[in-house]
Amino acid sequence: MLKTLNQLLGNQKKQLYLPIFLTIIDAIGSMALYFVLYLTVVDLLNGSLSESKVIIYTTICFASVLYRILIYRKGYLLCFTRGFDVAHDVRVNLGEHICNLNLGYFNQNSKGYLLNTLSNDVANFEGIITHALPFCMKTATLTLLIITGTFFINWKLALIQCALIIISLPILRWSNNLVKKYGTKKRNLSSKLVSVVVEYINGFKVFKSHNMTDKHFTRLLNSMEQTRRLSIKTEYKMAVPNTMYSIIVSFLTPLVLLSSSYMFSTRSFSSESFIAFMIMSLALTALLVSFEHYYIMINNLKLAVQNLKTTLDYKPLSYQEENFTLLNFDVSFNNVSFSYETGKQVLNNISFQSKKNSVTALVGPSGSGKTTIINLIARFWDTTRGTIEIGGKHIKQLNPDCLLHYISAVFQENVLLNDTILNNIIIGRPDATFEEIKEAAKIAHCHEFITKLPEGYNTLVAEGGASLSGGEKQRIAIARAILKNAPILLLDESTASLDPDNEAKINNALDELMKDKTVFVIAHRLNTIQQADQIMLLNNGTIEEIGNHDNLMNQKGHYYKMVKEQENAREWTI
């Protein structure tokens, strides 16, 4: 695990050198107390303990305690302050790294796993570098010092101690393996539990309306029960090696007492050596028990460290150009193929070109690849084969964050932050003035309902936008795109949640927004995209038909049939 920690910390590990060093020399300082205790007991047995010696011993003890207070306080505070600083930097690096990952990382891992990684794992990592690691090293250092000291007193007894310690090492290894085995199971169950909780909360309205709250709450209870059972089973399993280890190291003092008493009775061991060895043996036993505590803590937490490393090892989207300027906004797909999973092609050898300031409409049945094309343009994913160019530049060579400065998007499901409406709109352009924000809101037809709210633009939006209607959330998302005013616009059913009256208003606003932009719009209502410069009908990951509305209608193919079906559907009455 130290190797993994070293990789995670990088150059930041230098900040931990001083606090760890201070905890180690604190351990060395504590040896003075054992030494004074030894001298005091020897003088008592020899009848040579005088007032002057008591004063000297007391002074040494006082100085040692004062030294330890100063060193311990400084080291303890540094362990926390520098440890928290390092953990903060790791959090920031992790967040920046995750922002550069493609959507595959989020699709491959459950919400519970992601929440565990971003919260619990980082907190556990923080616990390692602020608590477990420094004090484990301190305990290990003091243990080595005492064992070394016992060899100077009597190497035979010291070897007996070492033999007993060596016997206990496989038990620690056993304990470590159990932690690894059951820790992984507990983490998986914990991730599943968090996912079920999030699912239950997010879907409560649906479950309630279908009278399924009991059914899904039972599922939640079952997840909790599985977690409880595994936790109890883990403790039972861990109790065996932990108890065995404690028993073995606790036998250290009786064994040393028996052996040293025999050697003392045969005159091969002095009384001073006998006393010194017993004092060190008692101290060593206490340290070995303490070491187990920190060792188990590190083993429990090292899974978190490994998970963080796994996340950081996940390759982000690569690029060659950090900063660039796009002067042309033609978009071209050249023999593009893409699959979310190996062996399941979503796009098959797609090629087309969308000229600057043109509107390209994507239509077709669900699963045909419409949203995938939108995601590839924004470089949320990278193509499996083929190239995508914007303004003649291969987007795989461009910094994804810089590329997104040129792209605005409104999706079917828009996420609102648990923040004010103002801050939710200003995401589109953080440096925008309040007047510009209001103007964007007016164009998106959400200014009127915002001003009617208790605190207007400063009204706090509930988590996920739960306090707003679907249409209101959609209009705020459209206001973001209007405010950003990027030259490439991606619309994925952007009017899907609006009533007919508002849809007409928003369509007028979008007509203004789409002027002088390269637009890609996904639409299921075909009457809304008849004026598009080109319409692509996708089917099974291929372009089945492409052209403007009149051309496709004249071909009387799949598009023609879809238009007629929708015209007939509008004539239905109930």
Descriptive key words:
574 residues, alpha/beta, ABC transporter transmembrane region fold, Rossmann fold, 2 domains, 6-stranded mixed β-sheet, 4-stranded antiparallel β-sheet, 19 helices
Count all strands and give the number.
10
Overall, the morphology is elongated
Strand content: 5-15%
Domain module tally: 2
Task: Estimate the mean pLDDT confidence.
Answer: 80
Structural class: alpha/beta
Going across the biggest sheet, name each strand in turn.
Answer: 6-7-8-3-9-10
CATH architecture tag of the largest domain = Up-down Bundle
Level-1 CATH class name of the largest domain: Mainly Alpha
Give the terminus-to-terminus CA distance. 68 Å
Runs in which pLDDT lies below 50 for 5 or more consecutive residues are none
Return the string of H and E elements: HHHHHHHHHHEEEHEEHEHHHHEHEEEHH
The radius of gyration over CA amounts to 35 Å
Q: What percent of residues adopt helix (DSSP H or I)?
A: 55-70%
* CATH fold annotation of the largest domain: ABC transporter transmembrane region fold
User: What kind of oligomer do you see?
Assistant: single chain
For the biggest sheet, the summary is:
6 strands, mixed
Tally the helices.
19
Strand and helix layout:
Blueprint: H1 2-9, H2 17-46, H3 51-99, H4 103-108, H5 111-153, H6 155-202, H7 204-209, H8 213-250, H9 252-265, H10 271-313, E1 331-341, E2 344-354, E3 359-363, H11 370-377, E4 385-390, E5 393-394, H12 400-403, E6 407-410, H13 421-425, H14 434-443, H15 447-451, H16 470-484, E7 488-492, H17 500-513, E8 518-522, E9 534-539, E10 542-547, H18 549-555, H19 558-570
Parallel strand pairs: 3-8, 3-9, 6-7, 7-8
Antiparallel strand pairs: 1-2, 1-4, 4-5, 9-10
